[in-house]
Specification:
Elements (H helix, E strand, L loop, with lengths): L1 H15 L18 H6 L1 E3 L2 E3 L15 E3 L5 E7 L2 E6 L68 H5 L3 H14 L10 E5 L15 E5 L8 H16 L5 H10 L4 H4 L3
Parallel strand pairs: 2-3
Antiparallel strand pairs: 1-2, 3-4, 4-5, 6-7
Length: about 260
């Protein structure tokens, strides 16, 4: 019995040193271990086949993976002073590959709309106002019969213009109503669609709107001012009736001069 114990210890030392590759446990070989298991135990590249769970593994197998005859995965790991075949994933064993995280899909960019959510007026008519919000309203005190004492009198527009505080407050409100992304008031002119010089209403929110200052060529407040001056001269010189000038500029100030044949 003592001789058998010494033999087992000697075999363990030889296996640890890589001089013996036939697997066996530290104890006596388990009953029922077939010779076929020992016969197919071999190294294939970095992999070992037909390993016996719990058996010592040679130096060449240290840190390597293997499979048992049942197809289970094992790894040669250090167990105290010796190296043994243990289930993959145990201490010192092969670490299971982490499940790859699904690739996050890019968030689609919002599609710009002519009328942003919450806006009451549409931007699709720019550089004109939304006709549903600002169709243009007239000052009933200005008629064809009164133009000589009203709009054609020097200083008329300045006298009837609303206070700056009123226009500024309305501008802030209407910037929000149009859903402009740029909320800086100085980037907009609170414009009278039918200008005061053509008998437009001074305070009506249906005649005042926040016209973007930073528009392209031919679309700026200065461009509209030039049209207003041309129409004012034509009305006061008797070339165009007041009502037609008001109608043309309210419909589309960019085409008003051409429509009136000026």
């Amino acid at each position: 019995m003592r001789a058998r114990s010494l033999l087992i210890a000697l075999c363990a030392v030889l296996a640890s040193a890589g001089l013996l590759v036939v697997p066996f446990a530290a104890e006596a070989a388990p009953t029922g271990t077939s010779s076929a298991s020992a016969g197919c135990y071999r190294q294939v590249g970095d992999h070992w086949e037909c390993v016996t769970p719990g058996a010592f593994c040679p130096a060449a197998a240290h840190g390597r993976n293997g499979t048992s005859q049942d197809g289970d995965s094992y790894r040669c790991v250090q167990d105290g002073a010796y190296w043994r075949w243990k289930p993959a994933g145990s201490s010192g064993g092969a670490t299971p590959k982490p499940t790859p995280k699904p690739t996050a899909k890019p968030t689609p960019k919002p599609t710009p709309t002519a009328k942003p959510a919450g806006a009451k007026c549409s931007q699709k008519y720019l550089p004109l106002p939304d006709p549903k919000c600002q169709p243009g309203t007239r000052n009933p005190a200005v008629t064809q019969e009164t133009i000589k004492s009203t709009i054609c009198t020097p200083g008329y527009s300045r006298r009837v213009a609303p206070p700056a505080s009123y226009a500024n407050a309305l501008r802030v409100t209407q910037i929000a109503q149009y859903g402009y992304g740029d909320r800086k008031p100085s980037h907009y002119k609170e414009d009278h669609l039918i200008p005061l010089s053509l008998g437009g209403s001074p305070k009506s929110a249906k005649n005042l709107w926040p016209q973007p200052v930073l528009a392209g060529k031919g679309k700026t407040p200065a461009d509209k001012d030039a049209v207003e001056l041309t129409l004012w001269r034509a009305v006061c010189h008797g070339e165009v009736p007041l009502a037609k000038a008001q109608q043309a500029i309210a419909k589309n100030w960019r085409t008003a001069v051409r429509r009136l044949g000026l």
